[in-house]
């Protein structure tokens, strides 16, 4: 019987993803350096990757470089020594300007900011369904010096508050800068983000 699901996402497959026997025969011990690389106006430089593979344990023990005015570090492993492979990924991003990526994704220059991020992810299994069902991870991020272009969220909030003041005129006497009966709006058409932080945890119950 075929695996079916409702909604917009296609069904997850139980088919094997990786040829585990072939992976166990790999022997690799290498170091790769890339001086500069450009892809769709995104530039990276000073990249170093150290990879190892032996008896089914594949590792990216070191991965680092510079991109988007910041730096990245990454390590990963695929343990295929058993029939239930284990995947791990750790990544750190520091001081990256997200504007080029956002512009490429949105096809418009709407957003910019400096991103710091940490990611720790793991899963097990050798099929799409197993990987999704067993996925676990944590991530934290901080966005600084951000700007949302063409959308002044501050003014949007004040417009709603000014409508409230219009209904309750006596409140204006209790608030500063409301002598005209409303709170003044900013002239800027953008929204400035001084700092935005967040965290997420992934684990299926």
Task: Briefly summarize what is shown.
This protein is 17% helix and 48% strand.
Q: What structural class do helix, strand and pairing data support?
A: alpha+beta
Beta percentage is over 45%
User: What Rg is obtained from the alpha carbons, in whole angstroms?
Assistant: 25 Å
- Give the biggest beta sheet: 8 strands, antiparallel
Please count the helical segments: 4
Mean of the pLDDT scores? 82
Gross geometry:
globular
> Termini, distance in Å?
26 Å
User: Can you write the helix and strand succession as a string?
Assistant: HEEEEEHEHEHE
Task: Characterize the structure shown.
There is one protein chain. The chain is α+β, with helices and mostly antiparallel strands and 205 residues long. It has 4 helices and 8 strands; from the N terminus they run αβββββαβαβαβ. An 8-stranded antiparallel β-sheet has the order 1-2-3-4-5-6-7-8. A hairpin with a 2-residue loop joins strand 3 and strand 4 (70-79). The longest helix has 15 residues, at 153-167. The protein is globular.
């Amino acid at each position: 019987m075929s695996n079916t699901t409702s909604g917009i996402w296609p069904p997850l497959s139980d088919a094997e993803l990786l040829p585990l026997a072939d992976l166990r025969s790999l022997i690799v011990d290498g170091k790769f350096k890339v001086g500069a690389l450009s892809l769709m106006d995104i530039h990276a430089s000073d990249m170093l990757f150290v990879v190892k593979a032996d008896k089914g344990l594949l590792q990216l023990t070191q991965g680092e470089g510079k991109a988007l005015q910041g730096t990245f570090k990454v390590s990963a492993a695929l343990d295929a020594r058993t029939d239930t492979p284990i995947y791990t990924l750790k990544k750190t991003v520091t001081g990256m300007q997200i504007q080029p990526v956002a512009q490429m994704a949105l096809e418009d220059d709407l957003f910019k900011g400096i991103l710091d991020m940490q990611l720790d992810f793991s899963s097990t299994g050798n099929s799409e369904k197993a990987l999704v069902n067993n996925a676990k991870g944590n991530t934290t991020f901080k966005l600084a010096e951000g700007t949302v272009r063409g959308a002044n969220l501050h003014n949007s909030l004040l417009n709603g508050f000014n409508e409230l003041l219009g209904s309750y005129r006596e409140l204006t006497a209790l608030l500063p800068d409301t002598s005209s009966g409303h709170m003044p709006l900013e002239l800027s058409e953008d929204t400035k983000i001084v700092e935005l932080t967040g965290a997420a945890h992934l684990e299926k119950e």
